[in-house]
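hey so i finally got around to running both of the ones u sent me last week. sorry it took forever, my laptop kept dying halfway thru and i had to restart like 3 times lol. anyway pasting them below in the order u listed, first the sequence line then the structure token line for each. didnt double check formatting much so if smth looks off just lmk and ill redo it

first one:
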Amino acid sequence: MLYFKNDYNFKKEVDIMESSKKNLPIGVFDSGLGGISVLRNLHQLMPAEDFIFFGDSKNAPYGTRPTEEVKELSFTIVKSFIKKQVKAIVIACNTATSAAIDDIRARYPQLPVIGLEPAVKPAVERKKNSQILIMATPLTLREAKFTALMEKYKKDATLVPLPAPLLVEFVERGELDSAAVHSYLETLLRQYKGKTDAIVLGCTHFPFVEDAIKDVIGQPEPFIIDGGPGAARELQRELQNKDILRSGDHQGQVTFFNSKPGKAEIELSERLFNSSKK
């Protein structure tokens, strides 16, 4: 015969389980090191959370790869996060978001999965009928998600897609403000000087070269925005809604992993994470 002790507190057991889930880490990944710009936003907004960052620098850049290959690489990383028992995942890569987020969410419907997309909406809403450059990787710019974004806002502003794949490679080398970076940006931005109201940084690598972009574009300085802060706020809302947001005096820890062997990528990851905020 089955029986239950009257003093058994099922609610207490559920509360303990939920409390334990709150203490699980959050997985964050990128094609390389660019997603560390998003990681900084996440850590700043939610300092009590533990984060695991994985940079797939061995396979960077994703932005010039076929969609199916990016999807396969993304799923491999997600599966490794699942084994580490993360409570949420942030795809800190516009390219991987475009290629894989719908399939990842369908495979893991109970897991909060936050992605990145170019911050076109706030740029458009800031000033109607403006000219907006959207700097991103070639794959991001040719995916259906970006096409839909362009279609949605094309009547409100002049949207100019601008592929900038080499910027990813500069950041992967830790080269953020060199003469070569300035020369490359000069080639890209020369025709838009004085004609651009806003620049959307549609790749998570690009915030690390924002100062160089400002130097090259000159005055009047356009409004520059990226999707990192918005993604951080979205994750915070998701965790709050599921009651798994960690709070209190715990000092969140950040752990870095990279697909490239050796210490160099980890050391560069830590340097980028600790570099000055914009």
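and the second one:
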Amino acid sequence: MPADPRDVLTRPAAVPDVTVSYGDHPDQVADLRAPAGSGPARRLVVVVHGGFWRAEYDRRHTDPLAVALAAQGHPVAQVEYRRTGQPGGGWPGTLTDVLAGVTELPRLAAGALPGRVAAGPPLLVGHSAGGHLALYAAATAPAAVGGVLALAPVSDLAQAYRLDLDEGAVAALLGGGPADHPERYAAADPRSLVPISTRTVVIHGALDQQVPIDMSRKFVAAGRATGGDIRLVELPKCEHYGLIDPESAAWPEITAAFRSLQDDR
């Protein structure tokens, strides 16, 4: 693992093969990466980046992750969306953008990467706030999502608000706390939406200082108790950023969990 785990956020990577638009706003786009080799067409993988939904973080910091998945033979789309601090970001634009992207990208990717994208709903890989958005998409539009790999997801917005994660990130997303906008939390908080019927694997590092692992433990326990197809993988020596770093010791666990989402599908 690099001396500073945050190095992955700015590590140079190959440029994407093509960028497509799923809406009219400049941030309603996705970068596509063709799968390496000449193997059979596979289901699209949509990477949903984190950054606590804030404008200063964009899809670029998931480039190493996306490149590594494409190298394993997967067509990959890095979806962008409007974020807090931007016009149209926050409630509801951030959430509706991701829903629109997840729904439209299989068609757009199949057109841009002919013969490389198999039919069917995409697999979502979401990290941190992107994990929240991936879980939200699966809960809200289950037919549009083939599986979710949630990496250190913000899976309980009410708790994240109480913990003041990233100094008010949830309040910025939803316009206040649960007492101010209970209907928004009811609609957007994965913890309020269990069980999620889509097959889901949650991976969380025990050393995570950005999103506490206990949040994932409680979320997965609630999902399993209500019949959800969900499991938790805990990595005792991993922090927050190693989960999206192909050079980290956590990477074999990430790829193994990702393969498990594709079993029998």
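quick thing i noticed on the 2nd:
Helices lie at 63-71, 93-112, 129-140, 157-163, 169-174, 182-188, 213-225, 251-261.
anyway thats it, ttyl
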